[in-house]
Amino acid sequence: MKKTILYFCLLLPGVAASDEVVPNTSKGVANSSTWIMDLAPANNAGANEKPAPKAERVSIKHIPADKIVAVSLGGKLFTEYRYGNPTKPILYPVIGPHGIPMTRNFPMKKGVAGEEDDHPHHQSLYYVHILNGHDFWHGRGGVRVRNDKIVKAKMVGDEAVMVSQNSWMKDKTVVCTDTTELRFGETGSARYIDFKITMHASNGPLTFNETKEGTMAIRTHPALRLKGDVAKGSAINSEGIKGKAIWSKPAKWVNYWGPIDGNTVGIAIFDHPKNPRHPTTWHARDYGLITANPFGGKAFKSKHGAMKVDKGSSITFSYRFLFHDGSHKDAGIPKQYQQWTQQ
Asked: Is 28 part of any domain?
């Protein structure tokens, strides 16, 4: 008959135990071990314990009742994908470093000090264009982008990922559809939104009309404007062109930055090398509107105007919005862009 002997040691005040296990060498005793106590000072107690699980820096939550997908960083709201917005899905608000709002509040919230109430179709961060002659940019003539389904809203690694399916409507007729994939995360002290949209010519041939009025857009915090009563912004593009002269020029990226509430912050927008017509031209104004628009044509003195997509085909565009601390040089935008394109 086998016996098991248990060896115990009394832990005295002021000492701590280790988890080291030494095999028992007693004759005639099988399957036993002796626990050895490490008479170390009590202030080392817990030194070998596993740390508590780290709280998730990024989180995402779909709230169907409010028709939003909310993304938080460090337990605080980063942005909301508002798919119940009347004319198009938008990302609003967008909170940058130091808790600073990076986009204009109007028209979602009116009467905010320092904000102009021009161009009510400039709604924070969004993607629209004039398609088949239908003015989705201004939201006129009975058009809207209707959300059909939130396919995914979950964490994938260190990123929050959301996928939505939308229909571009003219009254009750579907002009085309899209699949939008958004990724949210952090890189160093900056935070980002990766915006990937695939436009499907699902209901017939699709034409992106030649116009400066489009496409991948953001309306910035008024302090990042280049002109106006509260303007304190600066701007540069990947080609070294500065200020309002970046309008209509082709570039891999553009960057606006300036002081807001005692901190310098900025917005950089990256055009992916695999995008059609890369490097894109930019409808980047001095009053706070920044858009990547590869369909400007004559208005931009560009050879790239209208683009046609055959029925049943699709076309994909990918962009990164980087919300950074510090100036253009502080943020190292060229290096940030290079790192993003190599992912």
From this structure: no
Question: Is 221 a domain residue?
Answer: yes
pTM of the shown model: 0.84
Q: What is the pLDDT of residues 54-83, one digit of tens each?
A: 457 999 999 999 999 999 999 999 999 999
Quick check: is 111 in a domain?
yes
Q: What's the pLDDT tens digit per position in 158-202? A: 999 999 999 999 999 999 999 999 999 999 999 999 999 999 999
- How many independent structural domains does the chain possess? 1
Answer yes or no: are the C-beta atoms of 271 and 292 closer than 8 Å.
yes
Q: What is the DSSP string of 13-43?
A: TTEE----EEE---TT--S-EEEPP-BEEGG
Q: Which residue range is the domain that position 253 belongs to? A: 75-341
Tokens at 175, concatenated: 């002009």
Measured distance CA(104)–CA(92) in Å, rounded: 9
Assign residue 215 the CATH number of its domain.
Answer: 2.70.98
Phi first, then psi: what are they for 325, rounded to 5°?
A: -90, 145
